[in-house]
Structure formats: structure tokens, C-alpha cells
Amino acid sequence: MEDGLFPRDRAEIAPGAVHVPDWLDLDAQRELLAACREWARPPAGLRTVRTPGGGAMSVRQVCLGWHWAVVPRCPNCGKSVRENPQCPGWHWYPYGYARTVVDGDGAPVKPFPPRLDRLARDAVARAYGRPAGAEAYDIALVNFYDADARMGLHRDSDERSDAPVVSLSLGDSGIFRFGNTEGRHRPWTDLELRSGDLIVFGGPSRLAYHGVTRIIPGTAPAGLGLTGRLNITLRVSGLAPGP
Ligand SMILES: O=C(O)CCC(=O)C(=O)O
Ligand SMILES: [Fe+2]
Asked: 11-235 — its CATH code?
């Protein structure tokens, strides 16, 4: 939202959890949105996530997987990305990772573009004022929220790495609830995430409960061309690349 009367400041909302307002400018937001639209196409496109209890998440999601700079050959078929750009990556489903869209169309997950690793590292450096660690970011979850969608309090705990989670917002604002590591109860902080905002959470907050309580329709920047909210969450899997 470009009401911009008062600049919003970088804020540490909990130890190791940092909010950087307006990190992506409008051009960078447009570029990321265009990429998300490509990733959302089938096969292995946007899907409704169903939890083991039978419920459906209101958020729709697409995942990207392998980081080809780190795993130059697919552990499944042994080919390089040039030989086979469709090799599987990491797909998140409740509650684990797979190389195909096991809870959707079964297609191989789209590769994780190395530029998202660079983006995640830049984000960590901006939020913490120090370089990111050695591990490469190799998971991207793209979440689409319509006006009624939300995401319940949960922890990002299916990874085997304590590298910070990087989260980017595009489109309509959302109310992000950031809680504690103990449970889905107070204390928590509610903050408005606007288009272009960055959140990084790591260290003592890496396993904190968090969620999105509501979307504020009609708040996307006029020049972006998105109705609803997109969130791009970047993570380090820490999962062995072997088959
Ligand atoms: O949409 C958001 O801001 C949060 C997304 C999230 O927590 C997740 O994908 O695990
Ligand atoms: Fe999360």
C-alpha cells in the first residue's frame, strides 16, 4: 500500500525474527510476481493442500525444489539440468518433503532457480546485518491467499537445517501473527505485512509458531496487478540429496 506518509522501520519482533518493510521495490515485486505466475502453471502448479485430517487449507500453494547449483545432477536420473530441466525437486506436503507432487498431479517438482538462493541470502544479510551461512536455500513455497484465506499457527519444522526462513509478501496486505516456540498461545505479535515486505526468522525464533489471521482486500499497490496476496517462503531443506 503506498499511503507512505510515515516510513516504517526495520523491527526485531522476537529474538532472531526481523521485519524489513518495503524491502522489494515495485519493479522487483513485478518481476517476482511474473515468476510466481509461471510457477503456478501446471504441471506441478498451484494446488489445494489437504491436511491428513481431511481438511483443506484455504491457501493454495506451489513448491519449487532442487537447487541445481548445489546438486548439479539429479540424484534420481543422473542428468544435469540442461539435459533434463524437469527433474524433481522438493515438494512440501503435510508434513514432509517429496520429489513429486504426491498430493497433487504427481508431476516432478519444478527446479529451484539459483537466483532465489541469492535473493534469500540478500534477505538474510539485510535483516541481520551479517552474511547468510554456507548452506544453499533449496526450497520455495509460494502461497496464494484470496480475500478469505488464512493460515493457522504452525511451525516450519520439516527441514533438517536451522538456517533462517525468509518470507516475502506481494499484493494485498496480510496480518501476520508471530508467536513463540512453546505453543499456539500468547505471547504473539500481530503485524501488517505489505507488498514488498520481508520477514526473516531464525536463531531462537526458527521454530516459532506463526500464521496469517486475515487478508486486507484492496491494499495491493495499484501498479502491481495482483488481487489477493502471494507469499514466497524460502528455506534450506538440510535434506540429503541422495535418492
Ligand atoms: O503467508 C505467510 O506470510 C506465511 C507463510 C508460511 O508460514 C508458510 O508457508 O509456512
Ligand atoms: Fe510457515
From this structure: 2.60.120.590
